[in-house]
Amino acid sequence: MRHLIDIKELTVEEIEELIKVAKDIMQFPEKYSEKCKHKKLATLFFEPSTRTRLSFEAAMMELGGNVLGFSEAKSSSTSKGESVSDTIRTVGCYADIIAMRHPKEGAPLVASLKSTVPIINAGDGGHNHPTQTLTDLLTISCEKGRLDNLTIGLCGDLKFGRTVHSLITAMSRHKNIKFVLISPDELKIPEYVKEEILEKNKIEYIETNDLEKYMDELDILYMTRVQRERFLDEEEYLRLKDSYILNNLKLKNAKNDLCIMHPLPRVNEISTEVDSDLRAAYFRQVKYGKYIRMALILKLVNQNNENNVEKNNTKKEIINEMKCKNPSCITTIEQELDHVFILTDEEKNIYRCKYCEHIYKEENWWKSI
Ligand code: NCD
Asked: pTM value?
C-alpha cells in the first residue's frame, strides 16, 4: 500500500501527474464532486493547525467524501497513554485514509508501518511536511509556469522549518535549481539536508545572514516563521524571532516577476504592506493547497494494491544497539519501537535514524550503549 511520509517517495513523474490533476480540478471542479462518495478521511492532529487540517477536510468534502478526527492530542486517547501504533490500528477500522500531524519526528512513518489504510504525513516535528511541498510545487508551477531554472531564496528558520526541508528535497530533482539559504547562524539548514540532498545532488547553494544581498537574483522568495514550539530555550527564541521582516523597501531590488511565498502562519516576518504587492502569492498558495490535496487523496484512496510492489530496503541497518539522541524522535516516546539506524552514506560510513534521520557517525558509537 502506498502512503505519503516523505516527498522523496513520489517520483518526479508522479508529482507532475498530481499537479496535472490539481489543475484539472481547479478548472472542472464538478467533475470531481462525487469521486470520494462514501469514503472517509480521518485527520489526526496531535499538534495545532489551521490551514493543513482544514485544507484536508475541505479537499475531502469537495470530493464528496466525509471527514472525522481530532485537532489536539488532549482530545484523543494519547492523553491516556495510547501509542501511535494502537491509535492508528483503531482509526483504520473507521476511515479509508488518514492525514496525521505529530510533534515527534518519524511518527507518521511508525503509523504507516502498522496501518491498514494509507497514511499522509501532515507534518512531523521539525522533520518533513510533504503535502505543504506539493502545495508549494503547484504554486510554483501555476505562478512561474515551470519547476526548473529557478533561483530560490529560503529565509527564516531553516533549522526547524519542516516545509523548507521537504521543499529542498523536491526542488533538488529539477534542472538548474539554485538555493540562497538565508538564516541566522543558529537556525541554519540541518547537516543532513546539506549532505544528503544538496551536496549529493550537486545543487548550487549559498548560505547567508543577509536577506537583501541576493534579492535581485531571486525568482522565488520563500519566507518562514521562527518555530517557537521547537525551541528548548524561550530566551533564544525571543532573541531570534524578528531576525527577518520583509517589507516593501527590502524588495526594492527584487525582480518584477519574483514570487513571494510563505507556508503560513505568518507571525511578523512579512509586513502586511507587502500583501497588496501582486508578487505576494502566499494567500493564493493556501488555495492551491486544497486542490493538490484533492489530487493526492484521489491517488491514494483509489490505489490499486496489486500494482504497488513494496520496495525492500537493501541498505545496511543496525538494530537495537543504540538509541536515537534526538529528543524530538518518535523513539523517545514509543516503547515498543526497534531502534534502527540505516547506512545512508557508505563512503563516509554515515548511519541515520530510520525515523527522524538524525545522524550517528562517531567511531565505535555502538560500543557506547
Ligand atoms: C507550516 C507547518 O505546519 O510546518 N504550516 C503549514 O502547514 N501551512 C509552517 C509553520 O507552521 O510555520
From this structure: 0.94
Q: Tell the burial category of 144 from Cβ atoms under 10 Å away from its Cβ (0-12, 13-18, 19+).
A: middle
pLDDT in tens, 310-345: 556 688 999 999 899 999 999 999 988 999 999 988
Which amino acid makes up residue 164? V
d(CA 352, CA 350): 7
Q: Is 352 in the pocket of ligand 1 (CB under 6 A)?
A: no
- Rounded to the nearest angstrom, the distance between the alpha carbon of 314 and the centre of ligand 1 is 33
Express each pLDDT in 268-319 by its tens digit: 999 999 999 999 999 999 999 999 999 999 999 998 754 454 556 688 999 9
pLDDT of residue 314: 81
Atom from ligand 1 closest to the CA of residue 129: 4
Atom of ligand 1 nearest to the CA of 47: 3
Helix (H, G, I), strand (E, B) or coil at 266: coil
Average pLDDT for residues 179-194, to the nearest whole number?
95
Give me the domains of the chain, ranges plus CATH numbers.
7-128+288-304 (3.40.50.1370), 130-286 (3.40.50.1370), 317-368 (2.30.30.20)
Find cell 475541505 and name the residue.
58
Q: Is 174 exposed, middle or buried (0-12, 13-18, 19+ CB in 10 A)?
A: middle
Question: Among candidates 305, 304, 222, 301, which has minimal Cα distance to 59?
Answer: 301
Q: Give the pLDDT of residue 312.
A: 60
